[in-house]
Write a structure and sequence with these properties.
Helix content: 25-40%
Number of helices: 10
Number of domains: 3
Radius of gyration: 24 Å
Distance between the termini: 52 Å
Strand content: 5-15%
Organism: Suillus fuscotomentosus
Number of strands: 13
Largest sheet: 8 strands, mixed
Protein name: F-box domain-containing protein
Strand order of the largest sheet: 1-2-5-6-7-9-10-13
Structural class: alpha/beta
Length: 373
């Protein structure tokens, strides 16, 4: 019986091999099926275990956009420690992550966030901390997204980088020790910004050109729905979230635009469907940065006449209303998502719904401030 010769991966043209590797290594954030973030890198990760060549070709693609949260942060920190140990023991296996990370998402990590406590290692001459390892990677990305409750991690990283700049040289003449231009924050709340009180934090905020706020605490999202459904604002108006008054906008010296996300509420609206976890289309409102710097945060974005029958303005009843109290919708760019997403993470039945916001961000929102779903 004649045997059929087995095809070898090495027999393929280099161009075909490159396509195969890219297909296997590049996570597809725009998949139509149910989003499962834990499986995004599974195929590429398995192939990296069997081929050193594949590993060195695939890792730059895998690292382009990094998604970290409570579940996978420990494994990622372990991988960083391993690269540090490889540098001392097996240099051929070491891979420098930082130059390849362009976008990084850090979700709610709780106690798994990196600390500045030294990690003992038998392979390195001097113990290093997890913060030492992740700070260059986090600050090297041009687009950074992080849960607002973990903003202290960014503060710690920039303070570490800032203090290690050459103190003998005027810091104003040195390049900043970070590349971040787009800052995305999720689950915003009305807390103060400790970052803005530090010289390093002020310098970091001053370098941001695009600020994106993904849906805040669910109370703010629900408040927007109530304003629309109970005719607290007009059908084309938006009440600005309360947390906006706590943001140190004047520190964002180079801010070109700020983007806010609202659930799309069109009357009639079924609040019960929303409360049990139904998905909604999202609206992305992008304002020029000049509308937020050096002025009072507007209370409302107005797209319809306040005199419209059946609606009242948030400014009604005020003794004096100035132009600073509202922004015209004509000055705001509005984009509607092609597909609905979860705004409510907890249903009335007590079951959890996994929000798709990291998928939305990774699909292109972090780069262009637009929906790519």
């Amino acid at each position: 019986m004649e045997t059929t010769p087995r095809a070898s991966f090495n027999d393929l043209p280099a161009e075909i091999v490159a396509i195969v590797i890219k297909y296997a290594a590049e996570p597809t954030f725009t998949q139509d099926e149910e989003y499962e973030p834990t499986n995004l890198y599974s195929t590429a990760r398995e192939l990296c275990l069997v081929s050193r060549t594949f590993r060195h070709l695939a890792l730059p693609i895998m690292l382009h956009t990094v998604l970290l949260d409570f579940d996978n942060m420990p494994a990622f920190l372990h991988a960083l420690r391993m690269q540090n140990e490889y540098a001392q023991t097996y240099p051929a296996l070491r891979f420098e992550y930082t130059p390849h990370v362009r976008n990084i998402w850090i979700g709610e990590c709780l106690d798994e966030c990196p600390s500045d406590a030294p990690v003992d290692s038998s392979f390195t001459s001097e113990p290093v901390s997890d913060l030492d390892l992740i700070a260059p990677l986090l600050l090297g990305a041009s687009s950074l997204a992080i849960d607002f409750s973990c903003l202290y991690l960014v503060t710690s990283c920039i303070e570490l980088a800032w203090t290690r700049m050459d103190k003998s040289t005027d810091r104003g003449s040195l390049p900043l020790p970070w590349n971040t231009k787009t800052l995305t924050l999720s689950r915003m709340s009305c807390d103060t910004w400790e970052m803005a009180t530090l010289a390093s934090g002020s310098a970091f905020l001053a370098s941001i050109t695009h600020f994106i706020a993904l849906p805040p605490e669910e109370d703010d999202t629900w408040l927007h729905i109530l304003f629309r459904t109970r005719r607290g604002v007009g059908p084309q108006n938006y009440a600005t979230p309360l947390w906006m008054s706590y943001v140190p906008w004047n520190s964002f010296e180079r801010l070109e635009r700020a983007s806010l996300v609202f659930p799309r509420v069109q009357l009639p609206f079924d609040t019960f469907e929303y409360s049990i976890g139904a998905k909604l289309h999202a609206e992305l409102l992008t304002l020029p940065g000049s509308m937020l710097k050096g002025r009072r945060v507007p209370a409302e974005i107005q797209g319809s006449k306040d005199t419209e029958e059946g609606y009242f303005s948030l400014q009604d009843g005020n003794a004096a209303v100035s132009d600073e109290d509202f922004v015209s919708l004509n000055d705001v760019h509005v984009a509607v998502s092609d597909h609905p997403v979860h705004f409510c993470a907890m249903t009335t039945c007590g079951s959890c719904v996994h929000p798709d916001w990291q998928k939305v961000w990774a699909s292109g929102l972090q780069a262009e401030g637009r929906w790519v779903l």
